[in-house]
Design brief:
This protein has about 300 residues and is mainly alpha-helical. The protein has a single domain, classed as Alpha/alpha barrel (Mitochondrial carrier fold). About 70% of the residues lie in helices and about 0% in strands. The protein has helices spanning about 5-35, 45-55, 65-90, 100-135, 150-155, 155-170, 170-175, 175-200, 210-230, 230-240, 255-265, 275-295, 295-305. Helix 1 (about 5-35) crosses helix 4 and helix 8 (about 175-200) packs antiparallel against helix 9. It is found in: Mitochondrion inner membrane.
């Protein structure tokens, strides 16, 4: 399987997956950013209902344009890098041990943060804008949900990116890089070996590919387990990458400071904020990704594309 096919597969998988589950991602970000005593949303469903009420149905897709633009290179890098490292580590003909599979996943996680960090940085500002407009003391009456909606809608990824570049340079877009690595590397270390082993259980013969529904279920299962396992790191990353804060919401100087303040002020359970959303988000996202990859959408496209486009 060539690199162009891997890139197409990763891109298509990312676009389809993001379109399907983005509202859940928005709920996850808003739930994770809530502080004790300033809880606007009680649950994922409550968050989505209030978002629709205050910002309309399109409000659930705030930040989706950033993801749809950058998810193609992100997923392409992640899936292609994992395949590259697995192929490289299996060159001696002895196959892949679990440790080598974990190393391949680690390499994929490190490679993807080149795109993931600025993508998440911009997406989080857009997703959290609606929550910040509704934070007002300990409770937010229903009649106040339309307040600040115009300001929320005026925020754009382009403006945020330019402001960051002018004030902080390229480094501004990579705020939270360490926390992103802390989340994505362990995720990939857990996800890719687990998916490979679950997927292998669906093979009738070693030389046969498992049915596509088995690949989907394997991707969902592995993604769900990996997502919940690294949720504490995702909470820290979300907090560190949030540029705007409500009244009385503390700031953080780094990963350790963030973890310490969350633990002291909100308790251990705060590290599981948005865990159910993240599981519901990641499971179908990676299930779809693996089905697209296994079905070979990229190969199909290339078979009907003039070879001269890729012969350079």
């Amino acid at each position: 399987e060539g690199l162009p096919a891997k890139l197409i597969n990763g891109g298509v998988a990312g676009i389809v997956g993001v379109t399907c589950v983005f509202p859940i991602d928005l709920a996850k970000t808003r739930l994770q950013n809530q502080r004790h005593g300033q809880q606007v949303y009680r649950s994922m469903v409550d968050c989505l209902l209030k978002t629709v009420r205050s910002e309309g149905y399109l409000g659930m897709y705030r930040g989706a344009a950033v993801n749809l633009t950058l998810v193609t290179p992100e997923k392409a890098i992640k899936l292609a890098a994992n395949d590259f490292f697995r192929h490289h580590f299996a060159r001696d003909g002895r196959g892949l041990t679990v440790f080598r599979e974990m190393l391949a996943g680690c390499g994929a996680g490190i490679c993807q943060v080149i795109i993931t960090t600025p993508m998440e940085m911009l997406k989080i500002q857009l997703q959290d804008a609606g929550r910040l407009s509704n934070v007002a003391g300990t409770a937010v009456p229903a009649r106040q949900y339309n307040a600040g909606v115009a300001a929320v809608r005026s925020v754009s990824a382009t403006k945020i990116a330019w402001d960051l570049l002018h004030s902080q340079g390229v480094g501004g877009l990579y705020r939270g890089l360490g926390a992103t690595l802390l989340r994505d590397v362990p995720f990939s270390v857990i996800y890719f070996p687990l998916f490979a082993h679950l997927n292998r259980l669906g093979q009738g013969q070693p030389s046969e590919a498992p049915p596509f529904y088995w690949s989907f279920l394997s991707g969902c299962g592995a993604g769900c387990i990996a997502a919940v396992a690294v949720n504490p790191c995702d909470v820290i990353k979300t907090r560190l990458q949030s540029l705007s804060r409500g009244a009385h919401e503390e700031s953080y100087s780094g990963i350790v400071d963030c973890a310490r303040k969350i633990l002291r002020k909100e308790g251990p359970s705060a590290f599981l904020k948005g865990a159910s959303c993240r599981a519901l988000l990641i499971a179908p996202l990676f299930g779809i990704a693996q089905v697209v990859y296994v079905l070979g959408v990229g190969e199909f496209v290339l078979d009907y594309t003039p070879n001269t486009l890729f012969s350079a």
